[in-house]
Design goal:
The protein is an alpha/beta fold. 39% of the residues lie in helices and 13% in strands. The chain has a domain of 276 residues: Amidase signature (AS) enzymes (Alpha-Beta Complex), CATH 3.90.1300. The structure holds glutamine (GLN). The site of glutamine (GLN) has 13 residues, from loops.
Length: 491
């Protein structure tokens, strides 16, 4: 039997392994071959170790033969974004400043993947320190959108999304601080889940903005998203912001959905459909609303008035936290060290000047400024107050609806190099950022392929804190009826 890796999912691959039709070595070899064929064009990875991958796959096959298979993930290849620690491997966050640094331990999500027998399948490219929306800020090379190699794959988890979309791997773990899982998923036509803050351990995730960061799965479909979320979620004593483990299996929730959305109240925020939305995106979202109605959902008009301040407050809070988190990279203990320095202060300054890219430096400066005495109250404190108001907006909305629908991005994937103004770039996350500020959950699902451009678009379902069951269910029914799931890039 020929396995079509372009359409295969985790669930399907797991069945094939279970029934003995395929071994993990065969499965991983198919992906390695695909990488050999197209990675030169896509550039979704910064590191792949073929031997290490095949070794893990062999061990998994032995377990299966001996009847000691660890889980349905045993032998399944999963990649991770280059800011998640894997013991003994480089973890560079797409930055020059961390080149050569080897992680001394596994991130909790990586330990969980190992415990379940998954094959760790390399590291995906990203915007440096997760700051960006296109993958153009990577210090290695920009990743390309597999649907159109002249376009960006989104960011900052662009490598993860492009790798899954181009069938170089079955799934990848990204991180989402302001949209970095959902926006690239939408740009590449795959599914991206930003879980509720605290439901996935951040231990071993290099911090960008600690109060906003969350690891999330990027997968081919919604069921796979639930499977991978089940695997990575759960309480972790090593993360002080970790919540209690869920009592349900999200994969079961998704498996048992009925074919309609009868009784589901879907909120449509009027502020998300104003100016600045491209026509194709507006039409797509309008069609999505009509479909949900057809499926029996009640459409409710809601208002999220403070969302207009989301971008400004995010770029104060995120940069403030980043300026503190990135202070530890100084060229002393690990990573890049400038060879130009004659004294200690110069060594710090030169290592950071040469090691960090332009966008990262811009944000460190901005973050240091908003925290500086005299400006703290005017900027940082005010942004925190706005954050509370944004949270309250969502609380009010979820009193009258179960789930909120919005576009995932205000425009379709744009050309590499097309947006150079940082402020214009920051607008790319206009629909995703408030969700992180509120600490709630959202999923981005492919909604259509724009035929004139042959690139995908995605919609976003937003749920309350710990409302992953509602958004996953809604996304699954939507996916089943939207039928874009089997469209793959022609690459
Ligand atoms: N694009 C946003 C930023 O540049 C979000 C990034 C993210 O979620 N990591 O900060």
């Amino acid at each position: 039997m020929m396995t079509d890796i372009k359409t295969i999912t985790i669930a399907k691959a797991s069945e094939l392994l279970e029934s003995g039709i395929l071994t993990s070595v065969e499965l991983c070899s198919l992906y390695l071959k695909r990488i050999e064929e197209i990675e030169e064009k896509v550039k979704a990875f910064v590191h792949i170790d073929k031997n290490k991958i095949l070794k893990q796959a062999e061990v998994s096959d032995v377990r299966r033969k001996n009847g000691t298979t660890l889980s349905s993930f045993d032998g399944i290849p999963v990649a991770v974004k280059d800011l998640i620690a894997v013991k003994g491997e480089q973890c560079t966050c797409g930055s020059k400043i961390l080149r050569g640094m080897t992680s001394p331990y596994d991130a909790t999500v990586v330990s969980k993947l190992r415990e379940k027998g998954a094959v760790l399948f390399g590291r995906n490219n990203m915007d440096e320190f997760a700051m960006g929306s296109t993958c153009e800020n990577s210090s290695y090379y920009p990743t390309k959108n597999p649907w159109d190699l002249e376009r960006v794959p989104g960011g900052s988890s662009g490598g993860s999304a492009a790798a899954v979309a181009s069938s170089e791997v079955l799934a990848s773990l990204g991180s989402d601080t302001g949209g970095s899982v959902r926006q690239p998923a939408a740009f590449c036509g795959v599914v991206g889940l930003k879980p509720t803050y605290g439901t996935v351990s951040r231990f071993g995730l290099v911090a960008y903005a600690s109060s906003l960061d969350q690891i999330g799965p990027i997968t081919k479909d919604v069921y796979d998203s639930a499977l991978l979320y089940d695997l990575i979620t759960g309480h972790d004593p090593k993360d002080s912001t970790s919540l209690s483990s869920p009592e349900l299996s999200y994969a079961n929730v998704v498996k048992n959905v009925s074919g309609n959305l009868k009784g589901l109240k879907v909120g449509i925020p009027k502020e998300y459909f104003g100016e600045g939305l491209s026509e194709v995106v507006r039409n797509d979202a309008t069609e999505a609303i009509a479909l949900l109605k057809d499926l029996g959902a009640d459409i409710v008009d809601i208002s999220l008035p403070y969302s207009k301040y989301a971008i400004s407050s995010y770029y104060i809070i995120a940069t403030a936290e980043a300026s503190a988190n990135l202070a530890r990279f100084d060229g002393i203990r690990y990573g890049f060290r400038s060879s130009e320095s004659s004294n200690l202060m110069d060594l710090y300054l030169n290592s950071r000047r040469e090691g960090f890219g332009t966008e990262v430096k811009r944000r460190i400066l901005l973050g240091t400024f908003v925290l500086s005495s005299g400006y703290y109250d005017a900027y940082y404190l005010k942004a925190q107050k706005i954050r509370t108001l944004i949270k309250e907006d969502f609380n009010k909305a979820f009193a009258v609806c179960d789930v909120i629908l919005s576009p995932a991005s205000p425009y379709p994937p744009f050309k590499v190099g097309e947006i150079t103004d940082p402020l214009q770039m920051y607008l790319a996350d206009i629909f995703t950022i408030s969700i992180n500020l509120a600490g709630i959950c959202a999923i981005s699902v492919p909604s259509s392929i724009i035929s004139s451009m042959n690139v995908p678009l995605g919609v976003q379902f937003i749920g309350p804190a710990r409302g992953e069951d509602v958004i996953l269910k809604t996304a699954k029914v939507f996916e089943d009826h939207r039928a874009v799931k089997n469209f793959v890039p022609n690459l």
